[in-house]
Write a structure and sequence with these properties.
By secondary structure, the protein is α/β, with parallel strands linked by helices. The chain has a single domain, classed as P-loop containing nucleotide triphosphate hydrolases (Rossmann fold). A 5-stranded parallel β-sheet has the order 2-3-1-4-5, with helices on both faces. The structure holds 2'-deoxycytidine-5'-monophosphate.
């Protein structure tokens, strides 16, 4: 069983993906953390995320330590991740790892849940993959991200978080490769006004319907 969850930032993909993985006993991969790790590595080594050669080098040499770097969730890394994610060489370097994870989960699980932007369209487009497109209004998503950052002690304003998120989403949606869009066979899940339990239940209902 492979579940692909795509959508814009802070739409609730990660929470849903983790819950579905725990419920069905599947491996879980947050593919955004791969692009974040590339962005963080570039910033740490004082290189420019727009430098295509540097970004490709970082993507081809990711280690497991890079994936757990403490700064991965900062706004600076979010911005760098969005820039490197638009580069074809970076995406090519990360593609096989994601496909292998889905088809041969590292812990021997019977399947996997992957969340990102292009899982249902590029990484796992096959028709046997259960696909979700999870989204919410920009205001709802910015509020969620703002609360997360605030809880971590980051001094940001909600308006700034919303503006930056909007810019990054537009970059993700308009790039020439693996742009963020729903797969034609994805189930549309609007999480505006839903709590995590309601989102989980809606996803479970859909999975049960497709497997009936
Ligand atoms: O989901 P996230 O915010 O952690 O993603 C970080 C960046 O990586 C974001 O700009 C989108 C990009 N990304 C991508 O292009 N493809 C994926 N499968 C996952 C994330």
């Amino acid at each position: 069983m492979i579940i692909a969850i795509d959508g814009p930032a802070a739409a609730g993909k990660g929470t849903l993906a983790r819950r579905l993985a725990a419920h069905f006993g599947l491996a879980f991969l947050d593919t955004g953390s791969l692009y974040r790790a590339v962005g963080a590595k570039i910033l740490r080594t004082k290189q420019d995320p727009r430098d295509v050669v540097a970004a490709q080098g970082a993507a081809e040499n990711l280690s497991s330590d890079d994936l757990t770097a403490p700064e991965l969730r900062t706004e600076a890394v979010s911005e760098a991740a969005s820039i490197v994610a638009a580069q074809p060489a970076v995406r090519a370097a990360l593609l096989e790892f994601q496909r292998n994870f889905a088809r041969r989960p590292p812990g021997g699980e019977t399947g996997a849940v992957l969340d990102g932007r292009d899982i249902g369209t590029v990484v796992c487009p096959e028709p046997d993959v259960i696909k979700f497109f999870v989204h919410a209004s920009l205001a709802a998503r910015a509020r969620r991200r703002f609360k997360e950052l605030q809880a971590r002690g980051d001094s940001v304003t909600e308006a700034r978080v919303q503006q930056d998120m909007d810019e990054r989403d537009k970059r993700d949606m308009s790039r020439g490769i693996a742009a963020l869009k729903p797969a034609s066979d994805a189930y549309d899940l609007d999480t505006t006004g839903l709590n995590p339990d309601q989102v989980f239940q809606a996803a479970l209902d859909h999975i049960q319907r497709t497997r009936a």
